[in-house]
TrEMBL record:
Keywords: Aminoacyl-tRNA synthetase, ATP-binding, Cytoplasm, Ligase, Nucleotide-binding, Protein biosynthesis. InterPro entries: Gly-tRNA-synth_bsu (IPR015944), Gly-tRNA-synth_heterodimer (IPR006194). It is found in: Cytoplasm. Tetramer of two alpha and two beta subunits. It comes from Secundilactobacillus mixtipabuli. It catalyses: tRNA(Gly) + glycine + ATP = glycyl-tRNA(Gly) + AMP + diphosphate. This is Glycine--tRNA ligase beta subunit. The keyword ATP-binding applies. The gene is glyS.
Amino acid sequence: MAHTFLLEIGLEEMPAHVVTPSIQQLVQKTKKYLKEQRISFDDIKSFSTPRRLAVQISGLADKQPDIDEEVKGPAKKIALDKEGNWSKAAQGFTRGQGVTVDDITFKELKGTEYVYVQKHIAGQPVESVLAGLKDVITGMTFPTMMKWGSYHFEYIRPIKWLVALLDDKVIPFKILDVTTDRETRGHRFLGKTITLAQAADYEAALTSEFVIADAKKRKAEIRKQIEKLAADHNWVIKLNPDLLEEVTNLVEWPTAFAGGFDEKYLKIPDEVLITSMRDHQRFFYVLDQNGKLLPHFVSVRNGNADHIQNVIAGNERVLAARLSDAMFFYEEDQKQTIDDYVERLKTVSFHDKISTMYDKMQRVAVIAANLGQKLGLNDTQIKDLVRAAHIYKFDLVTGMVGEFAELQGVMGEKYALLNGENPVVAQAIREHYMPISADGDLPESTVGAVLAIADKIDSILTFFAAEMIPSGSNDPYALRRQATGIVRIIRTNKWHFNQEMVADAIDAEVSANVAPDLDQKAQIKAVGDFLRDRIKVTLLGEKVKHDIVDAVIGGPNTDLLDNFTVAQVLTDHQNDDDFKGTIEALTRVLRIAQKADKAKVTAVDTSLFDNDSEPKLHDAVDQVAEQASELDIPAYYNALAALKPVINDYFEATMVMADDEAVKNNRLSQLSQLSDLILRLGDLNQLIVK
């Protein structure tokens, strides 16, 4: 007989952002537990609201299947003593398996006889197995945990009730002072306690008490109500997915409503209004059919439509107060110039172990100019870049950013334009923060992209030099995110960027007398490795084979763009018929070249050649070396791959480790020259070829 089981954890209201990952975790852990316990089932349906996490399992088996298995024990010579009696080892083994020595048989395995017994394990009834879900509940983890009462137990929020119902039967267990029952709770204000007769009644019973327990249905209902409001008023409402998810996890019985604010606040930049509504009040903003912001908002109440006008009025008052503050800051901020704000940054700390924010801007201006020249920016772009770098943090000391920290950069662009700055400069000020998440939008302008790299390089360099290097999961200054941003910008713009450019930027700082009182040069390699580690994470996330990633990252080429391109080229060629032969030829060169004494590696002396394969290899390598700077990575790989027959002929005809010291060193020098060319691709020894 198939069963239906309901498990519900009733809680004090959870933060909206943890509801979805928490129910996902409960489903995964429940599935894993049932699989480990050998209990089959048809489906698990999840339910979640701010006050509950629940799973309803259908098609549960009556019991675990019985198991008959053969268990191997000690060797026969250990199981029997000299007199042929059963040893303590044999007796202990059988006792542990729930059988007796009379059940022992012997079987030979690889020339040795061992004890074997047939073991029967009776399957446990599903009721007994389900009681173990207590450990699933208590084993859940959350980003923040709390204790309550006098208990040491920690959870996302205090547990208020538990339901564990197999069909119509309560599965008993207890967590702290809460014992499982068949009682769940309806909406906090509109509903009442519900006594469930059957596990299958759960969703319908809660709906009758003003709880839409299925998060997907609740989200769909919110979407439907908001779309109706939009249609009724001829509005356009963009349903931000993150906000919709958050609102879904804030309510149990949604009722959408529309409110408004004074049109005078439309003088404030749209970004400020949207931030106030979306991020601070969890409101959806409203546009007209032409995309213009309107003085209206839409929100969702956790309840029905009773007294909805009072709810609307209350929300309007709260928003009006926030917008009034925003208008005040917007008007006051414009009474000062950008130079005034830049001067104030001299007293604002970037970090107390590094410098002020003003000093950071001086460094970044030098780094940006240095990078701009190397990345091919024209004179106009470099002029705009340097201007942006000298002022790009000024909005940090404005009143608006002090109140709305989310608008860093955004208000910098707005105020820069109001102060008559070049639009390219203003755009770069906004874009230098980008990307603001691992997969966030990248700068669209060239000037903004270079400024973003320069700002992030300075942060990583100075924090490393101040010995504040991320370790494990500890990264309080988000340096990994900034490194990922650099890597993504470099890759997207197809710019070459390596450790030498970092060293040059530090030298430029020193020459301009803006370098911090920190040893940045000692961190060049560590910073380079840090950036390349982000390449590794990126490539593995794109399902590039581990050995290809290891080969690329393990080589001496620190050019970030080259690293990405080599990974793509090796991936493209890995299934070629001659890939194995090509890599084996190239890695043979690498392995033997490692035997060279670097102090004895010199220019190749052709007079020491004593077979035809040596000049052929020499000429072929010279040809690749001469073309190397002009070849892109795909062509460069093909040029090296074309050396395979020449390399194979060379090793067939040549004993590299000759008795004559001069000949040996000459041959090692020749292979070292080729090895250096190969290593531009990476440490190909890491590749696994079959």
